[in-house]
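Subject: Sanity check before I submit

Could someone independently write out the structure tokens for this chain? I want to compare against mine line by line before I put it in a report. The sequence has 201 residues.
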Amino acid sequence: MISAEVWLLFVGYTVPMVFSPGPGNTVLATAGGRFGVRGSLPFWLGFEVANVALCLLYGLGLGRVLHDVPALHQVMRWGSVVYLLYLAWGFFRSSAAPGGAREEPARLGFVQGLLVVGLNPKIHSMIVVMFSQFLDPARAMLAQTAQLTLAFLAVCVVCHFPWIYGGKLILGRFNSERAMRIQGWTFGTCMILVAGYVAFA
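---
Independent answer below. Compare away.
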């Protein structure tokens, strides 16, 4: 059983890391603003399933091989940049079309949620650090990994919902043609900025 002291340290580490602004939370807010909470659920589900998968992968030690290969880290980083630029292009394209012909960007679904997390090196690093700090090698690894993974999932759900709802609340109120065009350009620009952060940070 993991001690109360370790749980306090775990919460102290994970809440700021998960809630702080970053590529994943920016995409969650964008999804909430464009598609609402209900329309973002498949994307959010994919996002959290990918987090759980990474926790199990790294927690059980299988991911150490992936993490120790620097070339793979670069592939993930640049794959993430390309994917974020693809999302930006979709938002820009929907904004450029005239009035009635405006094309709604494709909803972000379950697979896109998996990709955003799977291609985000920050999330991989955060989970590796989490397990390196809070797994006790003297205790049963499977039980600890399961407990930490469930706790991490709870933190993620609690910390990600405000980003989705905040995006919906702030940006979802503007539905006129002009507002939708501004949103498309804003969201596209956000995706480019996030891609720049991932590429050069």
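---
OP: Matches mine. For the report I'm noting this point. The chain has eight helices and no strands.
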